[in-house]
Each structure stands twice: as C-alpha cells, then as structure tokens.
Amino acid sequence: MQLNIVILAAGMGKRMQSDLPKVLHSLAGKPMLAHVIDSAKQLKPSKIIVVVGHGADTVKQRFAEQADLGFALQQPQQGTGHAVQQAVDQLVGGDNAEDMTLVLYGDVPLVQAATLQRLLAAAGQGVAVLTETLSDPTGYGRIVRDSNGHVVRIVEHKDANADELRLNEVNTGILCAPTARLKDWLGRIDNNNAQGEYYLTDIIALAVHDNVKVSAAQPDASWETLGVNSRIQQAQLERSWQQEQARRLLEAGVTLADPARFDLRGELICGRDVFIDVGCVFEGKVELADGVRIGPHCVLRDVSLGQGTRVEAFSHLEQASAEEAAVIGPYARLRPGASLGAHSHVGNFVELKKTRLGAYSKANHLAYLGDAEIGSRVNIGAGTITCNYDGVNKFKTIIEDDVFIGSDTQLVAPVTVGKGATVGAGTTLTKDAPQEQLTISRVKQFSIAHWKKPVKK
Question: Can you give the pTM of this predicted structure?
Fold first, then answer.
C-alpha cells in the first residue's frame, strides 16, 4: 500500500488578527502545522503534500529543511475539495486498490497517530471519515446515515434542513479514500451550494452512488479534532493539550504540584519519583533522572539532570546538564554549555556559560562564570567573575582542583589558578596563580587620623 497524506494549510485565518499565516501560530511551543506533520510522519506515508495559499512562501520557508515534504499552491481558496484538487498531480500510487490518501488540516493540530491508524483500518479499501458526537453541533457538517446506520452523505450546516440540523454526529473534516477513486470523485464535485465552494465532503455521496463502502471512526479524545480559528480557541486548545500532557506524566508516576499550572513545549523524559512544582515550563528535550525535584517557576530548555538533582525556585536552565545530587538555585541561570559535576552547588544569582563546574564545587551567590573549566572541591566566593571577553574575543579561565577563590575576585582570562591555590578576596588576577600558594592583589590598607566627614552647607 502507498499512502498519501494531504494537509490543507492555505487559509488566511482572519480571526487570528495576525500577519502570520494561521498554521504557523504556536501550540505547545511549535507551529500548529508542525504538530500535524509529526503525526503524519508516524504513519510512514509514501508522500506528504502540504497545500498552501495565504502566506505560502512563509509557510514553505518555515519547513524548507524537511525535504520529504511536497507543497501545492491553492490560489484562490475555493473550498476543501478545491484544495485537495491542487495536490492531485503529486499523489503517488493508485494502481493498487489498497493505495490510500488521507486528508488532514493544518489548523487541527492535535489529531493523534493512533486515531489516524484506526481511521485507515476502518476504511479498508473504501472511504472512512473521522466523526465526533457533540451535544451542540452548531456550525458543523452533519453525518447523514441510512436506516441501516451506513454513512450516506455529509451535509454542511448552512445547507442542512431542519431534520438534519437535529443530528449531533458531525464531520471533523478528516477522511481517507482510495487514491484512484478520490481523483475521479474530485473531478466530479461542483460548487452548487450556499458557499459557492467545492466541498471535499461531497465525495461521500459520490462514493455511495458508486457502491463504495463509507465507514466512520471516532478519536480517543475530543481535543484531537478541535480546530483553531481565533486567539481564544488557540488558548483553549493550549490548555487542553497541557492538561493531557500533565495527565500522561501523572500516570507515569511523576508528581505535579498542580497539573493546571504546568507547561510542556517539547519532550519531557522522567525517571521515578520526580517532583515538579507549580509554574514550570519545559522546552525542547528535557531529561530528569530518578528523584529530581524542580522548584516553582523554573524554565528548563534542552536540559539533562542527574539523579537526585534539585533545582530551586525561579531558575533558568538552557542547553545545560548536571550530574547526580547537584543543587541549582534559587534564581540561578545556566546558559548553553554549562555543566555541573556531582554534588556541586550553584546558588542564587549565579550565572554559568560554557563552564564546567566540577564535583563538590560550589558557587553559592552572586557570581558570573563564563568560558571556564573549574575542577573539583572548588569554592567560588560571592561577587566573583571571569573576565572572559575583551570586546572582540573570548578567553578561557582554568581553575584546578581544591582552589579557594575569595569574594569579589576578578579572573582576567586567559588565566590559570593552580591546584590547591587560594586567591584572596578583592583580587584582580591577571597572571596565573601558582599551586598551593596564596595570591592576592590589593592596595595597602591605611587610615588617616583626624579626618573629618564633609558637612552639609
């Protein structure tokens, strides 16, 4: 079997009140269209064709790196049937009765691969539509069945009569059909309807006329078929999806302090007995080993944390990692390239960038450590900074094992502090500090006798 997947993504989305094409608006951290493409790829199709229209160049540019995608232009937009017609020349297969074409929508982003597999299975070598049963079907196309319960046609809300309007099984727009027959039916539909458009759903009546079986399947969850046409719907679907992701984590054994205050915008992999407090945001790929605890209002983006690591409140971690039992925060920032050894501590208002902090080392307050290699059991005093940038180039600071750096120290890179050395508080280090010695640079302290404070005139 050869499977085509056609994704309709040509709409303007006027109600979004935006210059950005609707399908590029974000849901859980990535464009809605990207969600649909990801689900489509799980089916391992022979061909994916995205039908673009409004903002076509912008949409194509956003997905330019995905060489396995084909694009078709719908201009002007004259309905869903017209949109699929634009992809016909790119459909593969059709010689085999098992070759199928599945139609999805770029603004219905959360349909799951398992639901689509079930839809294809329901179709067999016929047609299958994905339907929903709604208590309030207003605005949706209705599924019309015969006395035997077989689907015979779909009628749009604006074209429905009084009896049809009382039906509550509705069309989601998602359907699949044999590729060869779909091409034929698309050539036979017309725009003789209230909207003056070519409806894809009209192929259902044609299939019935041609004695092709029409089946239906329903999704596992109602949010799978929810579309986005406004900012309100976008926000509502975002919360629905976040609640679903929270539910999956809870079922996997993760403790969420409040599932309603949780945001996942990527992939979160958790070990056993992980705890996540309120207001946390996870982006990209985040891996939390057994026993990790994340405090409130933290942001983690592309992060890996070892067993027993603790992240305290209001910390921000990006492209960083920590080994077991590290302690981070509160109010810490780990920038790309930050790496913490086992049992290390990074405290409040400490920032690391392209820096390795060794095992059992600690920088507990008010420090900036950039482009540095820091050994084990090192103490970084408050107010310490690595002066790694001369305005043009970056330079590296090396601090070997068992070093003590006093408070308010500036390490002017490139510079090395030898093993076991002590750097006195207030030092500006411009040369290497020898092993096992005290290095200090200060103005000699002196006092002025009989000095008087200024008096206000």
Answer: 0.91
